[in-house]
Amino acid sequence: MRLLWHDSWIDAPDYFVPDQGASVAVEATVPLFRIENATARVSKQPGRKVAVFLMTDGPRSTLRKARTKRREPRFSGDLHTVVVVGRLADGRRVVALAIRVPRVAQQLVVHRRLVRDVPESFSMDDLGAIASRLLRSQHLLEPLTRQSYLYSGTEPAEELRTIWLQAFENGVSPGRVTRPTLAPSDPMRAPDLMLPVATSRSSRAMPVALLGAGDHARTVIIPALCKAGLSLRTVSDREPQIAVTVAREWGFEYATTDSERAITELPRPGLVVVATAHDSHARLATLAARSGHRVFLEKPPVVTEADVFELRDTMACYPGAIEIGYNRRYHPLVRRARTALAAEPGPTSIVCTVKELPFEPDHWYFWPNQGTRFTGNLCHWIDLAVYFLRGSPRPSSITLTPPVPGSRTDDEERVLTATFEDGSLLTILGTTRGDHIRGVQEQIEIRRGGMTVMIDDLWKMRVRSGGIERPSRTVFRNKAHGRMYEEALSRLERNEPAVYPVSDMLIVSAIQVAASQMVGHSTREADIPCWLEPSLRSGEHPEMTRTMRERAQSPVAGTGAPTG
């Protein structure tokens, strides 16, 4: 299809239609208003931030991040709320309210609750009248249309539906209608979700499907794939303009909005990198492994208990096929600290204070189907604690402090505590308070036996033992994303298995899911999930059926045991 993006017509794949969506072949459209700051990120003092990052993170990292931020409006800066007239796949003529879409496109996907049948006599003047009425309520519509109801797991707000229905009342003067300067699409045609972008090229390198083309993918993942010399086959994103723009800039052969098709049509064996919205991670990783591919799964690997079971079974069936991307495990100071602590006996006490990024309340991190901050971000430090503890000790209790009055969301300013059967203790404070210029900041303190280790912002470390303090540091602050991908892709090149342990995935997920459930249920204490102990036993020593054993012997999956 064709769509208008930043005043230019571009060819793009059709939208993939989610269950709650309806595909409309557009006849005419009225853009109501542009969505300001569509990323819902709070940006303060960008010039000062660049200056500080040059000192803390170094020029190469800072310039890469600054370039990504400067280019970000190309990908999200032209989203609108529009009203359209067109036809559904069954031929019905409808008017629909489309949210977070290009101004004009041959096809748009809208929420089913925001579609209304109209007669064949419905005219462009009628469409303009509806748009005019909607614009009278613009001050109410703008905050209600910042969230994508197609993907957030929420129904359109009652107030939004009321405004939408009231717009069909009579007595409204006509508004301005934009007629697309291209032929309308045929609602009866088969959707074209896979668009060839670059000429297919013969290559002996492993083909890659990248699922999700957001900031992180453009800044970190794609450069790592290119550096490793892999063949860029397909990039998928639910926003067609993002998929095709990234494909053209980086040389992917295909752009698509259908992640499952990107997996199933990838030549085997290939690599599938899952960097989509969190609720799809476990499902897509499972499909990729079952399709005969290696998988790099960005954090968090799971959101719900059902995700845990699905990923647990997949990792047992295909040992070594799925790598999980918790990058802090790869940091040189973290590894040095883990080695030093190994010389000390006894349980461990770990305290993590994390200065998080401030987001607007409608940021996708806060969508119900994405979990909470514990799912989206604080899982990093749950995983880091499990990495330090070694041997995957079982948690014995999980508690969460009550919400702080005045917080913008229920998961801000909360303290998570987990105790373990070996006597170890983990405390994580996630806060948006404090200096924001350096972005996400973290202070980690680990005590075991007679040793104390303090890591400041993944940049400086002090190891104190026997009254002597030994400082060390890296030249610049670095979160080890590059090293993580370099090592993971090197293992892939050598046909070595993934190294992230199933047992660690289960323990981190149990704590993370329990924390998110406590936020959602307004409780302060959670029981250890009943599935954890039997899952750990099966994950460490898979008792697979003959069919599962045959699958696990696939040369794609690898046969080595993951390390802890």
What does this structure look like?
There is one protein chain. The protein is of the alpha+beta class and 564 residues long. Among the domains are: 126 residues, Quinone Oxidoreductase, Chain A, domain 1, CATH 3.90.180; 185 residues, Dihydrodipicolinate Reductase, domain 2 (2-Layer Sandwich), CATH 3.30.360. The protein is built from 18 helices and 24 strands. The two termini are 48 Å apart. The C terminus is likely disordered.
Main features:
single chain; Quinone Oxidoreductase, Chain A, domain 1; Dihydrodipicolinate Reductase, domain 2; 7-stranded mixed β-sheet; 33% helix; disordered C terminus
CATH architecture label of the domain at 329-479 and 499-532:
2-Layer Sandwich
Strand order of the largest sheet: 23-22-21-20-16-19-18-17-24
What's the CATH class of the domain at 329-479 and 499-532, please? Answer: Alpha Beta
> What's the name of the CATH homologous superfamily of the domain at 329-479 and 499-532?
Dihydrodipicolinate Reductase, domain 2
Question: Approximately how much helix is present in the residues?
Answer: 25-40%
Strand content: 15-25%
Number of helices: 18
Distance between the termini: 48 Å
The global form is globular
User: Might you state the CATH topology name of the domain at 329-479 and 499-532?
Assistant: Dihydrodipicolinate Reductase, domain 2
Q: Low-confidence parts, pLDDT < 50 over ≥5 residues?
A: 171-175, 540-564
- Using only C-alpha atoms, the radius of gyration works out to 25 Å
- Total E-strand runs: 24
Task: Look at the helices and sheets and give the structural class.
Answer: alpha+beta
Mean pLDDT: 90
Largest sheet: 9 strands, mixed
